[in-house]
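Practice problem 4.
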């Protein structure tokens, strides 16, 4: 029978992918917490000393804000990943704000404990290096998408990304939240959503947006969502179901000469 903490590890795909030996390195240092929608895990310039692993349907956004008050989302992290000192060794000033989009359980781990475990296990280090590469890939693709693609395609890409992480057709998203994520005015976004609804792609309700035809949305969205999914599959061994939800990760344990993984510092 699984212990309480070990059962919670099953709720995050990164931690679930750990071997029993690697779990043993982290499990004694993991603590469970519950976060609420709108809660801030860390802000720009704050020292990040712990890593948060969203579990189940918890979703966290990395947000970059400007001096004029506008902001935009750069990455969406659910149970496939983690936020905090994943790329760095932790205890460094944060460049972005981590905002809880969908509340729920998270597992927290002191960043120093993860670094110690990486030094003791090549398989654990391989897993987190590959995830860091995928997270960076998502951020880079988001930058390109925001600069090059029309708002309609960007909106659909964002909705697909969220559905991948929570696995439901109905997404708990308000107009205000989505406008903030996309960096546009709420009134402008409302017109965009009305157009997408007329096209039969989504249904807009109070505090929610329902995906009506995922296949058509994938065709109408830009290539950015597919590029990120492909990278997760190649680098992290991500497995998706027919509805797009990520079910598991199973990264290769031995690097190859043509392996796309690269050190995050080299990008």
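Answer key:
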């Amino acid at each position: 029978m699984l212990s309480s903490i070990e059962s919670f590890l099953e709720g995050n795909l990164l931690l679930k992918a750990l071997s029993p030996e690697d779990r043993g390195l982290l499990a004694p240092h993991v603590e469970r917490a519950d976060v609420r929608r709108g809660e801030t895990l860390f802000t720009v310039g704050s020292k990040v000393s712990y890593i948060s692993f969203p579990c189940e349907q918890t979703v966290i956004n990395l947000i970059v804000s400007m001096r004029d008050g506008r902001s935009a989302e750069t990455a969406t992290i659910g149970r496939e990943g983690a936020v905090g000192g994943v790329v760095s060794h932790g205890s460094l000033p944060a460049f972005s704000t981590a905002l809880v989009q969908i509340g729920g359980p998270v597992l927290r781990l002191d960043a120093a404990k993860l670094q110690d475990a990486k030094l003791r296990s090549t398989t654990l280090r391989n897993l987190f290096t590959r995830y860091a590469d995928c997270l960076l890939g998502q951020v880079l693709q988001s930058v390109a998408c925001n600069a090059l693609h029309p708002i309609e395609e960007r909106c659909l890409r964002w909705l697909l990304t969220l559905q991948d992480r929570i696995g439901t057709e109905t997404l708990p998203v308000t107009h205000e939240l989505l406008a903030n994520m996309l960096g546009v005015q709420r009134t402008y976004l409302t017109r965009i959503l009305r157009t997408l609804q007329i096209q039969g792609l989504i249904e807009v309700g109070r505090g929610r947006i329902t995906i009506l035809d995922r296949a058509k949305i994938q065709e109408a969205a830009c290539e950015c969502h597919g590029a990120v999914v492909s990278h997760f599959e190649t680098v992290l061994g991500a497995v998706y179901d027919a509805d797009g939800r990520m079910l598991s990760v199973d990264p290769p344990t031995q690097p190859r000469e043509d392996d796309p993984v690269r050190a995050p510092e080299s990008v």
